[in-house]
Amino acid sequence: GQQLNQSPQSMFIQEGEDVSMNCTSSSIFNTWLWYKQDPGEGPVLLIALYKAGELTSNGRLTAQFGITRKDSFLNISASIPSDVGIYFCAGQRNTGNQFYFGTGTSLTVIP
Amino acid sequence: GAVVSQHPSWVICKSGTSVKIECRSLDFQATTMFWYRQFPKQSLMLMATSNEGSKATYEQGVEKDKFLINHASLTLSTLTVTSAHPEDSSFYICSAYDVGKNQPQHFGDGTRLSIL
Questions:
Q1: Best residue in B23, B35, B36, B46 to probe A by mutation, most A CBs within 10 Å?
Q2: Among A44, A98, A104, whose Cβ lies nearest the Cβ of B34?
């Protein structure tokens, strides 16, 4: 199956710092999603993006759907210890079609 | 919000055993369910797409006779790992999706399968 490339692969930051991660693909997607996964659990949806150029916020999280429809980024402001986890992007080409996941970004927040 | 329940959460069994994993959408009708496999420190890899009342669509490289999928109702899909071997040990996660509402897929909490 296809994968989306995420960067960075891992991040170690101090509590209170802002975080930025992105996701790129060689293919166009019509929906981009961002998920957070804690160890041993399923992913939890953070933000969903449906239109090219769309910028959406959810609390301290902000994500944007790239204009080319081949990329997306996620920003986390003022990080806190509970932000620790693995963040995945996911793309869908058309409604009802499969979702494909990015390679993941592991975030560690140092108190 | 939408809830997806996966059962069991952890299975340990002997090589050669067949294992069934259930995925249920508890408060919505899931026209489509997806099955993923995740190895430690890796991403989720889509195994198959399960549509209610029809045969599952498998991703390239996934053996359909090894991983049997049944989606008999709008709230239940099952994945059966037949004659499981140690290399089948992994974290299996399902997600459910209501195509009619075009809402994001919701994930179960996963099943950790360990084959001895």
A1: B46
A2: A98
The pLDDT value given to residue B31: 83
CB contact under 8 A, A96 and B110: no
Shortest CA distance to B47 belongs to which of A64, A77, A1?
Answer: A1
**A60 Cβ neighbours under 8 A, 6+ residues apart:** A76, A77, A78, A79
Alpha carbons A100 and A73: distance in angstroms, whole number: 16
pLDDT digits (tens, 9 = 90+) for A60-84: 999 999 999 999 999 999 999 999 9
Going by C-beta distance under 8 Å and a sequence separation of 6 or more, which residues neighbour residue A22? A6, A7, A71, A72, A73, A74
Is A41 within 8 Å of chain B by CB?
yes
